[in-house]
Amino acid sequence: MPRIPHTSPQTLRLFEALLTDPTRWRYGYDLSRETGLASGTLYPILMRLADQKLLDTGWEPSDEPGRPPRHTYRLTADGVALAGERLARRAAAEGSARLRPGRATPAPGAASLIGVTP
């Protein structure tokens, strides 16, 4: 499996969407809607993951005359493994950030903002 030094938050959002059903072929438009990523962000990520053999890509012919075929994507086995590992790493980092000393203490004045008296 290729080593990727850094996985952006946008790539992690895409991994989350693709892992909901890793064997299902997905359209870029649907992934854009699900992740909230604009096409100018999403498609470069899809191309990079495909170049790294983390995504399978294909073309689905259109049933409607005049409509072009649609590009489809799904995670490869290596993609599933990397996506799971990166999402687990993020979850662990977020969990440890919540447990750090001092993180549970509200900022001065914050209690009055939510109606809690210290």
UniProtKB/TrEMBL annotation:
Source organism, top-level taxon: Bacteria
Compositionally biased residues, Low complexity: 93-111
Gene3D superfamilies to which the protein is assigned, alphabetical: Winged helix-like DNA-binding domain superfamily/Winged helix DNA-binding domain
Stretch list, region Disordered: 92-118
InterPro entries: Tscrpt_reg_PadR_N (IPR005149), WH-like_DNA-bd_sf (IPR036388), WH_DNA-bd_sf (IPR036390)
One protein family per Pfam: PadR
Ranges of residues in domain Transcription regulator PadR N-terminal: 36-80
UniProt protein name: Transcriptional regulator
